């Protein structure tokens, strides 16, 4: 009978590992599950010679041996357990030529376990088109291993790979990295307690949570009693190990890998030469942003006008159809206008997510991350921080949670603190209604409207504020750290309509339902506060009638005066008048002051609040925009929402931290109330000062 050896096929996701497995095993495959868990187990046989067969196990894709999922734990469980019947005699690490640097991290870790390891460089057929040259002989010397250049698509190099598997016993098992160099004192203690154990294997046993599933593993004697370091210290040492490995990999590839991007002939390389160019790349990116915001305004204007007039008509219909009373007024003046203040912005928000989804699906967003890394480093951040900052255009909450992939604590903390400056979708309703009120219609070059340009400016202002704040915090926070930036560049592809549609629907629904709950609750509270009041509120008709007995007002004018008097003397009017002195220097009246205070729960409440306040006691069928446009400054007698007060409001919302949910997430991510409180007070102070300066200069 032919002798059989175990071969483990290991690699990062998307390296073509499954194709390599299929080429080696053909139809000699079987698929099952690992004992007790749902992770798929693929295995097959490959005849190497008349006297030798290979039992090949296709292990789940993993980026490294620092496990973070059940799939990755399966890989570690097998590689650490010599008693497992599938323990490999030889490991094949499948890499692909375009991401060799990232793939080699896993290779060095597996080789350091003392297992004979072959490096299979897949997609070698792309090397000529990509203008990539690899000195295989020199790379074999530097890594002290054997390498096979293969192409699973063209079925080349597999004879060489099979020959290397056959002669695996001749491959060196010398480690790439001296594990004890990571933390000499810690590893000296390990060596004394466990003198007969391989240090790197022991390091993985201690640092990895490899007991997810119901897999059985014999524990090393003494591990439980060994006084190890804290979890945070171990994480820091893991990061130190990763950095050391990449330093080794960088040195190796510097001597063996050459990529002449200028002479690459494939479409991706040609596009990359333009889209991530150190000069034109930025112009293209900002041009795309400009077109995106222009489209948001132009395409959404028709559905917005329809929604606005529909809600106004619905409110009026409710008043005339339902029997008079508080319940009817609550629905017509509180709930419907409040919800209308958020539903009206569904078209813009849907278009925003539509464009973001296309940029992500096409592969361009990864280029933006790479492109912006050059700028971000000057401000104490890296390209990794761009992901949360760009995500912040949708919502700051998931964006702050996305900072978890930033290993450097100082960089992560700064990113958390500055991300709320980026313009999220909750600011969009405020921006759109104020821009429509105070920015005149007109176009530059007959294409770009003043309103679209203003919206883009506000987005750039938010991003600029985040970058500048990061620069200041980098100087203020005295935390010494070092970080490395690695990003995977996916191939360009046409966005799948189904994926784009699902993203738009899910993101828009999440925004509307999340905001809708808050809006509904606050609208009801505001309606109650605006519909009731003490003292003169209950004598409104008598007082107004007495004051205007000689003015010969029409019935309609008298009713308007009574409604206005009631609103000013209601509970919300009293509260608004109390805070008016603080907001008057910014160009706001007490109604805007109430909207500002209520919007600290969530920014998008601002428009709904004003819609509710302006609807109480109003008998005419006017849209939210028209009611806001009709407001008059009682001191100056001019429109309340003019250019000066409008710009002041836009700038206030551009800088203020008005989202309790974001503060809660910051507290959770930093494990302290210190940072969210600093965020709240610092951003609110900046917003007040900037808005004050803008109004006083422009009025």
From TrEMBL:
Residues 4-171 form the FeoB-type G domain. Keywords: Cell membrane, GTP-binding, Ion transport, Iron, Iron transport, Magnesium, Membrane, Metal-binding, Nucleotide-binding, Transmembrane, Transmembrane helix, Transport. The chain crosses the membrane at residues 279-297, 339-359, 413-439, 451-473, 511-530, 592-614, 635-656, 676-698. It is a multi-pass membrane protein. Its main location: membrane. The keyword Ion transport applies. It comes from the Bacteria. Probable transporter of a GTP-driven Fe(2+) uptake system. PANTHER family: FE(2+) TRANSPORTER FEOB, FERROUS IRON TRANSPORT PROTEIN B. This is Ferrous iron transport protein B. It comes from Ulvibacter litoralis.
């Amino acid at each position: 009978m032919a002798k059989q050896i175990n071969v483990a096929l290991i690699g990062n996701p998307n390296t073509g590992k499954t194709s390599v497995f299929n080429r080696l095993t053909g139809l000699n495959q079987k698929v099952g599950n690992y004992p007790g868990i749902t992770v798929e187990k693929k295995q097959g046989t490959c005849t190497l010679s008349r006297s030798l067969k290979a039992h090949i196990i296709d292990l789940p894709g993993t980026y490294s041996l620092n496990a973070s999922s059940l799939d990755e734990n399966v890989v570690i469980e097998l590689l650490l357990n010599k008693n497992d019947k599938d323990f490999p005699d030889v490991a094949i690490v499948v890499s692909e030529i375009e991401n060799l640097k990232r793939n080699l991290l896993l290779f060095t870790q597996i080789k350091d376990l003392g297992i004979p390891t072959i490096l299979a460089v897949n997609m070698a057929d792309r090397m000529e088109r990509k203008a990539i040259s690899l000195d295989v002989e020199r790379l074999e010397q530097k890594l002290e291993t054997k390498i096979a250049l293969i192409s699973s698509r063209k079925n080349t190099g597999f004879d060489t790979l099979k020959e290397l598997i056959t002669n695996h016993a001749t491959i060196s098992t010398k480690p790439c990295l001296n594990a004890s160099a990571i933390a000499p004192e810690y590893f000296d203690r390990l060596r004394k307690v466990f003198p007969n154990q391989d240090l790197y294997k022991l390091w993985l046993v201690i640092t990895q949570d490899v007991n997810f599933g119901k897999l059985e593993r014999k524990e090393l004697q003494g591990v439980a009693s060994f006084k190890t370091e804290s979890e945070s210290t171990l994480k820091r040492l893991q990061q130190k190990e990763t950095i050391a490995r990449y330093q080794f990999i960088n040195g190796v590839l510097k001597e063996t890998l050459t990529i002449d991007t200028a002479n690459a002939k494939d479409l991706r390389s040609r596009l990359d030469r333009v889209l991530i160019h150190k000069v034109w790349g930025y112009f293209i990116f900002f041009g795309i942003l400009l077109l995106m915001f222009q489209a948001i305004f132009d395409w959404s204007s028709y559905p917005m006008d329809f929604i606005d007039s529909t809600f106004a008509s619905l409110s009026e219909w409710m008043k005339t159809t339902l029997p008079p009373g508080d319940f009817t007024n609550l629905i017509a003046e509180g709930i419907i206008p409040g919800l209308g203040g958020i539903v009206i912005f569904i078209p813009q928000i849907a278009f925003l997510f539509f464009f973001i989804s296309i940029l992500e699906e096409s592969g361009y967003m990864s280029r933006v991350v790479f492109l912006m890394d050059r700028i971000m480093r000057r401000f104490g951040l890296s390209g990794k921080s761009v992901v949360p900052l760009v995500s912040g255009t949708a919502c700051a909450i998931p964006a702050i949670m996305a900072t978890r992939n930033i290993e450097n604590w100082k960089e992560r903390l700064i990113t958390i603190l500055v991300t709320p400056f980026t313009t999220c979708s909750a600011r969009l309703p405020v921006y759109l209604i104020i821009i429509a009120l105070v920015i005149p219609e007109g176009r530059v070059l007959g294409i770009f409207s003043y309103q679209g340009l203003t919206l883009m400016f506000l987005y750039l202002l938010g991003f600029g504020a985040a970058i500048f704040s990061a620069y200041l915090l980098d100087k203020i926070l005295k935390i010494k750290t070092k970080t490395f930036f690695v990003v995977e560049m996916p191939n360009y592809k046409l966005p799948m309509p189904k994926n784009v549609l699902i993203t738009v629907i899910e993101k828009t629904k999440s925004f509307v339902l999340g905001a809708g709950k808050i809006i509904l609750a606050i609208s009801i509270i505001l309606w109650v506060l605006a519909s009731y009041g003490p003292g003169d509120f209950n004598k409104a008709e008598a007082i107004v009638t007495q004051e205007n007995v000689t003015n010969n007002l029409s019935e309609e004018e008298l009713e308007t005066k009574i409604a206005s008097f009631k609103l000013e003397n209601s509970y919300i009017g009293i509260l608004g008048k109390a805070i008016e002195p603080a907001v008057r220097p910014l160009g706001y009246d007490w109604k805007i002051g109430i909207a500002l205070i209520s919007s600290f729960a969530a920014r998008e409440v601002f428009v709904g609040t004003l819609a509710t306040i302006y609807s109480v006691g109003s008998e005419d069928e006017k849209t939210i925009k028209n009611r806001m446009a009709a407001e008059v400054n009682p001191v100056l007698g001019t429109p309340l929402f003019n250019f000066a007060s409008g710009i002041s409001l836009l700038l206030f919302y551009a800088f203020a931290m008005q989202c309790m949910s974001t503060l809660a997430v910051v507290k959770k991510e930093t494990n302290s109330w210190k940072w969210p409180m600093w965020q709240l007070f610092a951003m609110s102070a900046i917003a007040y000062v900037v808005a004050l300066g803008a109004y006083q200069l422009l009025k």
